[in-house]
Batch of 4 targets.
Target 1
Amino acid sequence: MDTQKLVYVMLLFLGSALLAGCGPSAAGPTATPALRATPTAVDTSLAEPAYPASAQAENSAYPLPLAPTAVPRPTLYPAGTIPDADAEVLFVTATETAPNVWTFEVTVAHPDEGEAHYADGWDVVLPDNTVLKVDIADQFTRVLLHPHDDEQPFTRSQTGLVMPAGTTQVYVRAHDNVHGYGNPVLVDLTTAVGDRYEVIQLAEEQ
């Protein structure tokens, strides 16, 4: 080997040795630790909580949203009528005058406009949608024969209504000759005073 080649080989050897000595050693004390990915923080404030099935069923220990309470409403309206018409029952007094025989006094409000538009009756309705009547041929429990333009609200009564034994609730609704029935008032015959009604049972009068 000539001198020039020997020098070239030695330079290569020295260069390799220098590079090996200056580079970081994976096992040495000065070795730079490998970088680890930093976990990304997750905002869980808006996440849906995972409720146990038992807690969902009991709806007690966990802040579960409450389902809206369904208000029972009977099918009181014949086809084609408007259930939210403006004939409004303001108050009902139900008095038992004999066993299972009742008198109802009903206060009605309606913007009567003469014969063309007025409240023409009110009903006492059983839970099975039977309308109580003294005369089965009557259109309503209490027929109102004329407008009450100058008497608002007004109260009319109907006596002699025979209630089936065991009846505990009835609905009272008013009707006008243009829009049909308004919203009914639920009367609980076992409760003396309620929302827009009072009940006087036979035993209370004796």
Note: The first helix runs from residue 3 to 22.
Target 2
Amino acid sequence: MANEKQTAAAETNKNTVPFIIIGLIILTTIAGIYWISQSGEKTDNGNNTAANSGANSTQEPANNYANAPAGALPEHFKGSESALVVVEEFADYQCPACGTTHPIFNEINSIYGSKIKFVFRNYPLIQAHPKAYDAAVAAEAAGFQDKFWEMQNMLFSNQGKWSTEADHRKTFEEYAKTLGLDVDKFKTDSLGLNAKNRVDTDMRRGNALDLRSTPSLYINGKSLVFEQMTVEGIKAAIDAELARVSPKAEEPSADESNANATETNNTSEEKENGNK
């Protein structure tokens, strides 16, 4: 009888083992999925995969701004290369928020001109916006024919069109033709490494700054939250920096003040003697 009970128990245990194993596998899988969802938003090769596009842009001042690697060189910039205030934008051509702020940044450049240096950086959110990387490459390819800013404006202005098309690259070629580019060269450059390397280099700079959304904007290394990216908000930040960094007229030293006072007194005495 004891042997029969032991045999039955063994059979029961034997039949239970597969279910235990399956249960452990399910629990492990669930735990793995949760861990991945809570992990960082960048892939191992450094490509950005953040999904935010302006709505939650609440960046803190970048403590590592000065130590971040340089972006693509030469930079695409407007204004003066020697300006004391540098405004640096990181943007995604397929990002709706970037399309919204594009005319704002154009207005800022019109207002300040050579008083600032406005630098544009590519930062396509490749997971959220699968066509953004190709758009950035297209802009860089146009840049090889000195039409970067014209292509940038074309891409942002027509964002709603090309971002929903199946063959967006063909549309980019049409934009190149409209801008008077050598279309064959544009197509070759769009497929080449030089344009892609420029985009990747900008992305590495953005990754080092731990960007989580676009547009991201820095004024002399200080980041602005998305809600500040209005003409008034950006002007306030730029004006504050201009006031801070602009050279102030040096006040005369005590010796110079005394010398000036003595000279003034002597001049007054000479005039009085001359009138006698």
Note: Confidence is low (pLDDT under 50) at residues 30-51, 54-61.
Target 3
Amino acid sequence: MAGKLSKRQSTAILNALSGGNVPRRGVEHIVVGREAEMEALLHDLDDIIADGGATCRLIVGRYGAGKSFMLQLLRNFAFQRNFVVVDADLSQQHRLTGSKGEGLALYRQLTANMATKTRPLGKAFPALLEKWISKVQSGIVRAGIRRDSRRFADAVESSIYAVVDEMEDMVHGSDFAKVIHSYWKGHQDGNEDLKSAAMRWLRGEYSVKTEAWRALGVRVIIDDKTWYDYLKLMARFVHEIGYRGLIVFIDEAAQLYSIPHPVSRENNYARLQQIYDDTRQGGAEHLGVFIGATPEMVRDTRRGLFSYEALRTRLEDSRFVHRGLRDMNAPVIQLDMLDKAEITALLQKLCQIHGFHYKYAVALEARHMDAFMDEVGNRIGAEAQMTPREIVREFVTILNLLRQNPDRSFESLLNGADFQPDQAALEAEDSPYADFDV
């Protein structure tokens, strides 16, 4: 088991897995396989983004195959490596762009979910600014200038300007810098209204430019066309104040595939191409964008990313890549299904976590795991259809039933269980129209 498991983590793990979700805490305790994929993604964090570069990756896999799990695992590793993280799921209201401000809505969701190692559950944006200002003030004190000195405020302001001035050479950088400075002035003067106005602007919550001008003296606002530029500014800013960079996680990208109107869908694909090109060609610094998608959403030449020629030529596999031989530096990381041995190892981990959580010894052996896997495989019909999500949810249920009914045996529960695959997930996987919304 990775590190020391806490009761809070075991609660999050078991509750999430029982509902078919990925836990936000403790996900590192249920990792099996995926060594090559994680090595490649951690290389992105440590050797590209932290070193001043940028990247965009698509994590591609079937429903239930572990896309969200991989993103969550990478999110936790990003915290450990002192990155700032933002994340959001795409939906009808949250897209990369749209005629009703869907791109701005996505940006607002991302900033609302801003998280750091000390605040991993989101809403870390104000705390991040306050911590930075406090750090600057402490540095001035360590330099020998007392807080009650007349020189103190000037020294702090000079340090603040030294950081925000670094933004000036970037698109919209001067306005971004002015708003950050306004937040500092509000902090210095005890003006909560000014601080609140600055936070509203940074979160993209102003819809009228004149309102932003009256409150902050800036003539622009973050909108559907410019939100990605401000993510780039945010990445540069968090690096300047002591973090290693900004990591953006966007899941449920199949929502773009389900957009019924071709023009709207292509506009979103064009925005994705812009982000991809900008990050992969050196147009951004200290920024990583990781997107969870399904194989159909990527490879469907009628409605998927491959229907957009500019993306197809960027994302399709090289002719030299084939099954068993993968290029882990490619922009698309394909998640193969876990094999039987890996799933068995996962079930063993769940036994340990369940026993730890409820303070009992789980009396299941390797033969029980084999019997469960055989039963699951037989009822689903083929190993190729076994997704970790389905199997884990059913296995946690069996562990719960065994603990709650000590008079029942594992065999009686297994043979009497009416286990069926998640038909909705399988239909979504098999049908090219499953995600189509009217």
Note: Residues 421-438 have pLDDT under 50 and may be disordered.
Target 4
Amino acid sequence: GRLCPGCGQALSACVCAEKAKGQILGDGKVRVARQTAGRKGKTVTVITGLPLTAAELAALLKDLKKTCGSGGAVKDGTLEIQGDHRDRLVQELVKRGYAAKKSGG
């Protein structure tokens, strides 16, 4: 049968997906930036560097979206929240114990 390129096991017995679930995605340097590039002029606040797993990022995103009253998504280990909410998000992340800094734009 076919083998997984990551772990070398058969695809039916692959353990790569389970390892990735518990993997911490960020580097610990939390940065909150504003982006408009490639979004047809729409502003998005991007949070990078959070030392959390994918499940923890999703839970944090839900709380932050509620705080800002807007939508958002998790993409490649970063949080994207619609609109420019940098100041509010930095305050909320600092309150939660992260050393967050505002950067960009």
Note: Helices lie at 16-21, 54-68, 86-95.
